[in-house]
Design brief:
The complex is a heterodimer. Chain A is mainly beta. Chain A is built from 5 helices and 41 strands. In chain A, 39% of the residues are buried. The chains are: A mainly beta, B mainly alpha. Strand 37 of chain A pairs antiparallel with strand 1 of chain B.
C-alpha cells in the first residue's frame, strides 16, 4: 500500500514521507508548507492554511478494509461548498490503487478513479435529476451539482493541491447504492465511482456513541448574537438556531456566525434532544421546522423534526396529526414521471402534491446551511402506507421514502406523556383501514356468489318442468274457455302459465285463472298478446309480444281448472282462430336466486363504498382530487 | 368473516326454502276466491264476472 519514499521539507528540513505510490503532494507537518513531488524533485507550493475544525472518525494512518481490500489513510483534503466544509480522505489500497473516503452527513462514501473513462458529459449539460450512463459505473442519477473550494489539506495527496481554487463537480447515485462523483477540476472530467459504506463495514471504529446508549455529548458554544448557550449535538451540523435569541447561526466554519433572526413561535411536538427508538432505530431529535406551501393564496403549514441515529439522518413529518417517518434514499432508486407517478423498490407511487415548500420556523440544528424563507420544490408520491418525497432545486435533488406512523407509536417511541392529538381528515399516506377488509370481503363474496350460482344451476337443472295442461283457446270475443279438470301433484311448487298466439298487426287479451276445483281459490292473470310492425322514416319497427307468461307461486297438490276469457277485436290485422295456453308445474324461480346474489354482495359493496369514500377524502387535498380539477399548473402544462 | 359466513349459510337456507316451496317473491297473479254458489252452478265459472283482474282493456 505504501512506497515509503522519505525526504526532507525544502522549507524547514523536517522529514517528509511520500508513503503512497500515487502521492504527488504532501503538507509538511512542521512548517505547513505544501510540497509537490515530480520524480525525485521536490518543489514548494506555498503555505497550507490551518485545517478547519471538523469532527471525523478518520485520521492519518487509519486503516480499514473495503470490499475485502485493505487501505491506509495517507492524507486529507478539506473542501468547502459555500459555507459547508467537509473532508475527503486520501487512501492507498492494498491492490496498488487509491481512492477517496468522503464524509458527509455522518455517512462514508468510498470512491476510486475510473481510469480511461471517456465521453463524460460536460458540467453545463448536467442538471439535478438527470440520468447518466457512465462508463464503469452504469446508470446513475445526478443528485447534486455544485462547486468545491480547496480549503486546506494534511498529509499526502494524489493530486497537486490548488489551494483556494474552485471547481465544479457532480455527485450521482445509482439504484444499487453506488455513488459517483464527476470532478470537473481539470481540462477533462474525472470519474470517481464507488459506494456508500458504513463505518463499521469499513472497519473504522465508532467513536461516537449511539443515541440508544445515551445522548451524544453536545458541544457547548456561545451564541455570538446574545451570549446565550448553544449546544451542538452533531459534528456535521451546518446551522443551528439559538434557543435564546432565535438567531440562526452558521457553524460550518467552526466558529458561529450570525445569519439573522428566525421565527420560533411554535413549540415542537417532541422536545429537541429527546431520545427514543422508532421502528427499531435509536434516534435523537435534533431540529424542528415549520414549513408551508401555498395553494390558491392560502398557506398550509406542517411540522418536521430532524432526527439522527446510527443509520444517519431521519425525518418525522406531521400534518393534521398524521405522522410520517422518512429516510433519505438515493435518487437513482426512483424512476419518476414527474407530476404523475414514481416507481421505487418495485412499487408504483401516485403523484399526490407538488408545491414550493418554504421554511417558516427553524429550531435546533441542521446538517445543511438552512435559511429561513428559503423555498424548494417538492413533489410527494403515495402508495399507502408509503410516501416518496422529492425536494429539488436547480442543483440538487433529494428523495426520501416515508412510512405512515400512528401518533400512538410516536408517543410510545419517545415516551411522551398523554396521548397524541387526534388526526384530522385522511393523511396522504394513511393506510386505508378498509383495504384489507375490501379484499377479504370480495374474496368471500366471490366464493359465496359462486356457491349460490352453482346451487341455483343445480336447482334449475333438477326442476321437473312438467306440462300438466295444453289448451287451445278459441279466440272469439266473449267466448270463455274452460279446461277439463287436471291434477297438479308434487307441490307446493311454482306453476307457470304461458299463452301464445300468432297475431299480426293485432292484439288479443287473455284473462286466465287457475282455479282449485275443491276450494274455489284461484290465481288470475292477464296476458296481452300483440304484434305490430311497420316502416317509419325508412326504418322498420316492431313492438309487442306474441307470448305471455305468469308464474303462480306455492301451488298445492289438487285438481285444477283453467279458465281463459279472450278479448278479441277482429277486423284489423290477423288474429288466429286459437291461442295455445300451457300449464307447467315445478318451474325454477329466478327471483330468490337474484335476491340471494344481491344480499351476498351487500357486505363487499358496503366495504367498497367506505373504502372509496376514504380514498376520496385522501385525494381531496391533493393536486388530483377525485371528480375535480387539478390545482397545480404543472398538470395543466402536461395536458 | 365468521358472521358473513353465517349470514351466507342462513341466506342459502332461505333460498333453498323459497325454491323448494315455489315461493314467488314478485307475484304475477292476483288471488280470487270463487264463491261456492258459483262453483255449484253449472257454467258458473264461465259467467262469473268477478275475477278482479279485469285483464287487458287496451290495444291499438
Amino acid at each position: 500500500m505504501t512506497t515509503g519514499v522519505a525526504s526532507a521539507c525544502p522549507q524547514c528540513g523536517a522529514p517528509l514521507r511520500f508513503g503512497g505510490a500515487h502521492s504527488l503532494a504532501t503538507a509538511c507537518a512542521y512548517c505547513r508548507s505544501a510540497v509537490l513531488r515530480s520524480g525525485a524533485k521536490l518543489e514548494l507550493a506555498g503555505k497550507v492554511p490551518d485545517l478547519v475544525a471538523t469532527d471525523t472518525r478518520l485520521s492519518l494512518g487509519a486503516t480499514g478494509r473495503v470490499q475485502g481490500r485493505p487501505f491506509v489513510v495517507l492524507g486529507r483534503l478539506q473542501l468547502s461548498q459555500g459555507e459547508a466544509v467537509w473532508n475527503e480522505w486520501y487512501a492507498s489500497f492494498g491492490d496498488g490503487g487509491w481512492g477517496w473516503l468522503a464524509e458527509a452527513q455522518g455517512r462514508l462514501y468510498v470512491t476510486r478513479p475510473i481510469a480511461g473513462a471517456t465521453g463524460l458529459p460536460r458540467w453545463k449539460a448536467l442538471h439535478a435529476g438527470m440520468e447518466l450512463d457512465l462508463p464503469g459505473a452504469g446508470r446513475a442519477v445526478v443528485d447534486e451539482l455544485d462547486e468545491a473550494r480547496l480549503v486546506s489539506f494534511e498529509g499526502e495527496l494524489p493530486i497537486p493541491p490548488d489551494l483556494g481554487e474552485t471547481w465544479p463537480y457532480a455527485d450521482c447515485t445509482s439504484e444499487s447504492g453506488g455513488f459517483v462523483t464527476l470532478d470537473y477540476g481539470g481540462d477533462e472530467p474525472v470519474l470517481y465511482a464507488g459506494r456508500e459504506v458504513s463505518y463499521a463495514d469499513a472497519g473504522i471504529p465508532d467513536l461516537a456513541p449511539a443515541p440508544a446508549a445515551g445522548a451524544e455529548p453536545a458541544r457547548a458554544l456561545t451564541c455570538p448574537g446574545c451570549g446565550g448557550p448553544v449546544s451542538l449535538r452533531r459534528p456535521d451540523a451546518r446551522a443551528v438556531a439559538c434557543p435564546s435569541c432565535h438567531n440562526l447561526l452558521d457553524v460550518s466554519q467552526g466558529d458561529l456566525k450570525v445569519l439573522g433572526i428566525v421565527e420560533a413561535r411554535t413549540a415542537p411536538p417532541i422536545l429537541l434532544g429527546l431520545l427514543g427508538t422508532l421502528r427499531g432505530e435509536p434516534l435523537e431529535i435534533l431540529g424542528f421546522l415549520v414549513r408551508s406551501i401555498e395553494v390558491d393564496g392560502q398557506r398550509y403549514p406542517w411540522h418536521e423534526l430532524l432526527l439522527h441515529g446510527p443509520g444517519g439522518y431521519r425525518w418525522l413529518s406531521v400534518y393534521g396529526g398524521h405522522w410520517l417517518f422518512l429516510r433519505p434514499i438515493p435518487a437513482a432508486k426512483v424512476k419518476e414521471t414527474r407530476g404523475r407517478s414514481a416507481r421505487c423498490d418495485g412499487r408504483t407511487f401516485k403523484h399526490f402534491q407538488g408545491a414550493a415548500a418554504r421554511y417558516d420556523e427553524i429550531q435546533g440544528e441542521f446538517y445543511w446551511a438552512i435559511r429561513a424563507g428559503e423555498t424548494v420544490e417538492t413533489d410527494d408520491y403515495v402508495a399507502p402506507p408509503l410516501l416518496l418525497s422529492a425536494e429539488r432545486s436547480e442543483t440538487e435533488l433529494s428523495w426520501s421514502r416515508g412510512e405512515y406512523v400512528a401518533g400512538e407509536e410516536i408517543w410510545k417511541a419517545f415516551s411522551l406523556p398523554g396521548a397524541p392529538p387526534r388526526p384530522v381528515g385522511v393523511g396522504p399516506a394513511q393506510p386505508n383501514p378498509h383495504a384489507a377488509r375490501l379484499k377479504r370481503s370480495w374474496g368471500a363474496a366471490g366464493v359465496a356468489l359462486g356457491a349460490f350460482l352453482l346451487l341455483g344451476l343445480g336447482l334449475a337443472a333438477r326442476a321437473p318442468r312438467e306440462e300438466v295442461l295444453a289448451l287451445d283457446v278459441p279466440l272469439a270475443q266473449g267466448q270463455v274457455a274452460l279446461s277439463e279438470p287436471f291434477q297438479i301433484l308434487g307441490g307446493p311448487q311454482a306453476v307457470e302459465i304461458t299463452a301464445e298466439a300468432a297475431v299480426s298487426q293485432a292484439w288479443v287479451g287473455l284473462d286466465v285463472a287457475l282455479i282449485d276445483e275443491e276450494s274455489g281459490e284461484s290465481e288470475a292473470a292477464a296476458f296481452e298478446l300483440a304484434h305490430f310492425s311497420g316502416v317509419e322514416g325508412g326504418e322498420s319497427w316492431s313492438e309487442g309480444s306474441r307470448r305471455g307468461r305468469a308464474v303462480v307461486g306455492q301451488v298445492h297438490d289438487g285438481r285444477y281448472l283453467l279458465r281463459v276469457e279472450p278479448q278479441v277485436e277482429r277486423g284489423r290485422g290477423f288474429v288466429p282462430q286459437t291461442a295455445r295456453v300451457r300449464v307447467v308445474r315445478g318451474v325454477f324461480l329466478a327471483t330468490p336466486l337474484v335476491l340471494a346474489l344481491l344480499l351476498v354482495g351487500v357486505w363487499p359493496i358496503t366495504v367498497t363504498l367506505r373504502s372509496v369514500t376514504f380514498e376520496r377524502r385522501r385525494w381531496e387535498e391533493s393536486d388530483h382530487p377525485w371528480g375535480g380539477s387539478s390545482s397545480t399548473s404543472r398538470d395543466e402544462d402536461d395536458e | 368473516m365468521r358472521s358473513y359466513a353465517l349470514f351466507c349459510a342462513a341466506l342459502a337456507a332461505g333460498f333453498l326454502a323459497l325454491e323448494l316451496r315455489g315461493v314467488n317473491l314478485i307475484p304475477q297473479t292476483h288471488h280470487v276466491s270463487v264463491p261456492s254458489s258459483v262453483r255449484a252452478a253449472p257454467g258458473g265459472y264461465r259467467t262469473y264476472r268477478s275475477w278482479g283482474g279485469g285483464g287487458f282493456r287496451g290495444g291499438k
